[in-house]
Amino acid sequence: MSGSRRNRSRGNSLVEFTLVGIPLIFLLISIFEVSRGMWQYHTLAYAVKAGARYAIVHGQDCDIAPNDCTVSISQIAGVIRTAGIGLPANSVTVTFTDSSGTATSCALTDCIAIHTTGHWPPDGSNAPGRIVRITGNFPFRSVITMFWPGAGRASASGTFVLSATARESIQF
Predict the structure, then answer these.
(1) What single-letter DSSP state applies at residue 147?
(2) In which domain, by residue range, is 93 found?
(3) How far apart are CA 19 and CA 74, in angstroms?
(4) What is the Cα–Cα distance from 67 to 95, expressed in whole angstroms?
(5) Helix crossing, 2-56 with 73-83: angle to 10°?
(6) Using an 8 Å Cβ cutoff, are 56 and 132 in contact?
(7) Ramachandran region of residue 86, left (φ > 0), alpha (ψ -120 to 50) or beta?
(8) What is the DSSP string of 46-77?
(9) What's the rounded Cα separation, in Å, for the pair 59 and 149?
(10) End-to-end CA distance of the chain, in Å?
(11) What domain count does the chain have?
(12) Is 87 within 8 Å of 47 (Cβ atoms)?
């Protein structure tokens, strides 16, 4: 009789683990994924804000002799990459919009490599008080998608675009 009680007890433990343990594991993975997503969003927001701050102190009055501190999109993108530790630079898309509404959009690595000449914001849009806006987008792919039925590994579902914008007024 005691042997059959032990077998039933073992079966009960397995059922209890199935009913409690699996949802608990899913909850723990979800907490880590939400935390990772928030960390990447805040890193992106900080990096874009740092790039905007760098841009606003290099306006029209900054390049009056003897100063020569005009900056290019490449230099601003470098500041964004440096401030965005942990974000893959080839996945981040950055859009630079000057006060006239002209926008330049590129992947962060392309911004650094291609836009090395010229200065930003351009003449006419770099006077003190003018507004510049820098927007960064990052596709966040969550590991939780492996639990979604039908999502599969190759599916694009579960990708969330994290977006951060910094809007600043040129100071100099």
Answers:
(1) G
(2) 2-169
(3) 54
(4) 27
(5) 150
(6) yes
(7) left
(8) HHHHHHHHHHHTSSGGGGSTT------HHHHH
(9) 52
(10) 89
(11) 1
(12) yes
Bridge partners for 131 per DSSP = 169
Low-confidence ranges of the chain (pLDDT < 70): 1-10, 63-68, 146-157
Q: Which two tokens stand for residue 4?
A: 């059959």
SS3 at position 135 = strand
Q: Residue 168, SS3?
A: strand
Query: What are the φ and ψ backbone dihedral angles of 27, each rounded to 5 degrees?
Result: -65, -45
Closest CA to 140 of 89, 81, 80, 91: 91
69 Cβ partners below 8 Å, 6+ apart? 58, 62, 63
pLDDT of amino acid 154: 47
